[in-house]
Amino acid sequence: MKISIRRRLTFSFLLTVILSIVTAGLISNYMIDGRFNQYLKQTHENKIQKVVKIAEELYDSSEGFEGIDPFEMKRYAVLEDIYIEIQDADGSIAFSSGQGHLVHKKRMGNMMGHMMGRRMMERIGEYIEEKHPLYHNNSKIGTIHIGYYGDWNLSEGDVGFKNTLNRAFGLSVGIALLFGFIISIILSRQMTTPLVKIIKAANEMKNGNLGIRAEVPTSTLEIEQLANSIDYLAETLQQQEMIRKRLTSDMAHEIRTPLTTLQSHIEAMMDGIWDPTTERFKSCHEEVLRLKKMVDSLQDLAKLEQSGQQVNKSTFDLSLLLDRIVESFQVQAQKKNIRMLSHIAPNFTVHMDPDKLKQIMYNLLSNAYKYSDENSSIEVALTHDKNNIILTVRDEGAGIEVKDLPYIFERFYRGDISRSRETGGAGIGLAIVRGLVEAHNGKITVESVKGKGSCFRIYFPIEMLVSKKES
Ligand code: ADP
């Protein structure tokens, strides 16, 4: 059976309160009981000693126990709730207080016993009689019998004290339970109200409303993190949805354009309107190439999405590799009279995948070239800081609009659509770059100003730098 968090929290809290009160109560009751009984025993023993001492002091060497004032002695017995009987050395009774006054005590004791439970009744109800020898000048002069009801002859005050203690315990249990209940309800409500809101938001998202946000003001860290994660999820899904819609329309358009051209060309030639010249076949061939390029891009993407990128690391000189890439790019750059600037720190021996690095550089440089105007410059730099190897590709080209910046690493996302079409991109170059960088545990960032240029920076963990010889 499923149980709601609110109910579970309330029950758990109450159970904890009950268990702690009962445990604390039992332990303190047990300890107080022990101390109290010890105290009663001590008091009782003192009382008996006192009676014995009084009896011994009343003895007279010549008159024996004759001089005892029976009224005074009886008064004492009544006061102390005990039966006193003094026998002289012959065993004849010199004084007896009688047990009449104890009857009342017995009855009262039973009554209290009913009020306080069986244990107390047993203690008070049982009649006990102790026998002690009496001495005078170290010789035995007789015996004294002291009788009473209950183990240690509990006085009314003692019973009252125990009673109060039990009542206080009961009262504190009740109050603690009440507080526990109120606090548990407040606490569980504080926890569950934001959770319910988050569930509502998640359900809305499930039903396609990706604009919803789980805005829950809460002071609970984990709940806040959960709400943030849900919001992030909604945001990402919304972006993906937007990219997907854009991709569908882009792809349809991209495919339709060459197909329409091919269709019209071929139909015109079939109908004899056009002569099948080499020029016309060349034009058709270009359209087929365009289609093929698109399919190749899709294949690259599929590879990217395969279970992570396979990285074949080896140790090589990254500075040298970059120098070569820049050099080989010079030829292409010259077509637009673009200057290739190189700020590559020398002798960086690294442990990475050289092929993947080449691909990263090729994609970034191709973009820089594609989006650069004539007579501008492209810079490639390699440095490092405490934690990272830093690779930079900077251009003075078209730049990227602020609204496009968060999405350019997404698959099939293209900034300026018309311009991209012109440049023939399919919007996956940067997605591949990011995939390859992340496969090296690195990260890529971009800074760009529309019309001024872009700067792509890649950070690889410094652990990949095997050695760096200063030259
Ligand atoms: P594409 O094949 O369209 O170039 P990419 O994934 O390589 O696809 O790039 C995505 C988008 O990022 C591009 O459409 C373009 O708008 C923008 N972009 C990438 N590199 C640059 C750059 N160096 N300068 C300006 N815009 C760029």
From TrEMBL:
Q: Which reaction does it catalyse?
A: ATP + protein L-histidine = ADP + protein N-phospho-L-histidine
Look up keyword Transmembrane and say if it applies.
yes
Q: Sorted alphabetically, which PROSITE patterns does this protein's record hold?
A: HAMP, HIS_KIN
Write out the annotated subcellular location.
Membrane
Q: Which GO terms describe its molecular function?
A: phosphoprotein phosphatase activity; phosphorelay sensor kinase activity
Q: Where are the transmembrane segments?
A: 168-187
Please verify whether the record's keywords include Transmembrane. yes
Q: Which UniProt keywords apply?
A: Kinase, Membrane, Phosphoprotein, Transferase, Transmembrane, Transmembrane helix, Two-component regulatory system
Please list the residue ranges annotated as the HAMP domain.
189-242
Gene3D superfamilies, from UniProt? 1.10.287.130, 6.10.340.10, Histidine kinase-like ATPase, C-terminal domain (3.30.565.10)
Give start and end of each Histidine kinase domain. Answer: 250-464
UniProt-listed GO biological process terms: cellular response to phosphate starvation
Q: What is this protein called?
A: histidine kinase
